[in-house]
Amino acid sequence: xxxxxxxxTLPSGVRIVTEHVPAVRSVALGFWIGTGSAAxxxxxxxxxxLLEHMLFRGTARFGSEEIDQIFDAMGAEINAGTGKExxxxxxxxxxxxxxxxxxxxxxxxxxxxxxxxxxxxxxxLEEIAMYEDDPQDRVFDVLGEASIRSGGx
Length: 153
Description:
Number of helices: 5
Strand content: 15-25%
Largest sheet: 3 strands, antiparallel
Low-confidence stretches: none
Distance between the termini: 37 Å
Strand order of the largest sheet: 3-5-4
Helix content: 40-55%
Radius of gyration: 18 Å
């Protein structure tokens, strides 16, 4: 494995991390947005997760089904996640599909339509309820809250 990666910061402040591995013909591509559930107030709880879901609801250029079809045709999957500190959307594609994957993902992140908001809201609420019902997931939130109250000691 190569330990040499390069970080490029664009004039807009966007950082790009690249690493060339000559023996590999695939590309891992992702967008990490520097906000997650930890930045939300109680009234905003779930908002980052909802926005993550909305990225897949289409753009002016690509409909929701079309996004799925484009990545299927490239033999790739596209996925996303929301954590405490960030929200991400990512894929792995063959190197020859990098430009197309980047084009679609860029549009998803920078130009989402936010269509079908109420339907997606229900999906997110169900996912949050499932998470909160799972003791293995929930214990980390309780531990984190206890750590913050005790000053991290």
